[in-house]
Amino acid sequence: MRKKEAHILIVDDNEDILFSARVWLKKFFSEVSCLSHPTKILKFITENQIDAVVLDMNFRKGFENGQDGLYWMNEIKTLEPQLPIILMTAYGEVELAIEGLKKGASDFILKPWNNEKLYASVNLAVDISRKNKKLSQWENINQKSNQYQLDSHSQKMQEILDQIKKVSPTDANILLLGENGTGKYVLAESIHEQSDRKNEPFVHIDLGSISENLFESELFGYKKGAFTDAHQDYAGKIENTQNGTVFLDEIGNLPLQLQTKLLSLIQNRKLSRIGETKERMLDVRFIFATNENLKKAVAENRFRQDLYYRINTVEINIPALRERQEDINILAVYFLDRYKQKYHKPNLELSENLLSQLKNYPWPGNIRELDHCIERSVILSNDKSLQLLMPQLEEQENTITNLNIEDMEEMLIKKALKKHQGNISLAAEDLGLSRAALYRRMEKFGL
User: Which residues form the Sigma-54 factor interaction domain (predicted)?
Assistant: First the structure.
């Protein structure tokens, strides 16, 4: 039998189980990797293209209740929502494994396993993974051809779009400033699509979602042997964008020591991996974005002044959604059309009354919050009548007197945390934020 081109990851703290599973699955799949410590899972998945994960449910001695497996499954799903996960469990934990299926596992197998069952389960998971990737690619292409934010009635946005049209063909560094959810990613991608690099890679690097100890290796790569877990040469995300566009989001999160290295990279267009003296010539275009006040960060010595001047050759301030109310209708109709098609509810419409409700809400989460609001409303409405699900508005539309954006933001975060019983991942998803961004806001408000 010809091996299927797929990378399988097995995670178990029992070396004998890892060996047996790997030997068997190696007969059918081109690459099978093993990890004995679950703490290494996320880094491994970040650095490798994995098609399916076989995950044990117990890792701590004396705590054989399967909760470890559910915890790490949730962590993997947060990082890679579409990645199929097969749980390995003992006979007495079947009920917990079934709970795992409800929470997103693709299958579970009992120890000791039947080899044919193991193969069949992993093979099916790989097929599911490939279908998910194709669907994701199709959705990305579909969304890419619908640049919703580029259709605007707002004078502020039209001026920005004219500015973008002028700077896109150049290689000038661009700094996009604006609150979370205002569409910095969409504009960065639009700049790339209007440039001479449009047929080359566009790589989005969210510095707010990378842990600080992984910043340097993720961005710049490393040489084999550079540190304990460096088992092979690794090209960083910037190097992999050669000839294309690097979009460094949340640039204000970059640690000072790496700001120096980034400044050198931008100035000299040369990159060195960790543990390597060799310099590699780099030809990329940089776009940066942040919701932070970088001038204040410079004054407080949290951000290098020379780097600030280097990254903002062209500075573009994106207005919040409440400052471009003329576009709320356009965006709402766009999102409604998208989700009517996705959830097969073609008869839903936005009445004048519903549009009025949308325009009277301050949208502290901006376009991203509007997007999530419309999607939730479509999902939970019946097939014929759209009902807006805006709990924040419903509870306060008659009592809100303070429209201070920070107060509103704190209120929404408290509500999300209460709703999801303190689950950070679910609260962040509901708010349309990354977990790192939510943690920063919780720290800011002392939550």
Answer: 150-379
- 278-315, pLDDT tens digit by residue? 889 999 999 999 999 999 999 999 999 999 999 999 99
Quick one: 209 exposed, middle or buried, by C-beta within 10 A (0-12, 13-18, 19+)? middle
Query: What CA–CA distances, in Å, run from 45 to 10, 34, 75, 361?
Result: 12, 12, 11, 40
- The class that CATH gives domain 155-319 is alpha beta
Least Cα distance to 431 among 404, 401, 408, 397 occurs for 408
Please return the burial class of 36, using the count of CB atoms within 10 Å of its CB with bins 0-12, 13-18 and 19+: middle
Tokens encoding 233: 């040469």
d(CA 10, CA 16): 12
Q: What is the sign, positive or negative, of the torsion defined by CA atoms of 385, 386, 387, 393?
A: negative
Query: Which residues are within 8 A (CB) of 92 and not within 5 positions of it... i.e. 6 or more apart?
Result: none
Q: Angle, nearest 10°, between helix axes 94-102 and 67-79?
A: 20
Question: How far apart, in whole angstroms, are the C-alpha atoms of residue 163 and residue 175?
Answer: 13
Q: Provide the phi-psi class of 89: left if phi over 0, else alpha when psi is between -120 and 50, else beta.
A: beta
What DSSP assignment string belongs to 146-190? --GGGS---HHHHHHHHHHHHHTTS---EEEE--TTS-HHHHHHH
In the chain, CATH 3.40.50.300 covers 155-319
Judged by DSSP in three states, 343 sits in coil
d(CA 160, CA 87): 50
User: How do residues 385-425 score in pLDDT, each as one tens digit?
Assistant: 888 887 554 444 444 455 566 667 777 888 888 777 777 87
The architecture CATH gives domain 322-445: Orthogonal Bundle (1.10)
Looking at 3.40.50.2300, 3.90.1300.10, 3.20.20.80, 3.30.465.10, the CATH number of the domain 4-142 comes to: 3.40.50.2300
Give the global pTM: 0.58
Which residues touch 446 (CB under 8 Å, ≥6 apart)?
A: none
331-359 burial code (b ≥16 CB/10 A, e <16): bbebbbebbbeeeebeebebeeebeebbe
Contact status, residue 284 vs residue 296, Cβ threshold 8 Å? no
What are the tokens at 21? 């599973």
| pLDDT < 50 stretches in the chain | 62, 137-146, 393-400
SS3 131: helix
CATH 1.10.8.60, the chain: domain bounds: 322-445
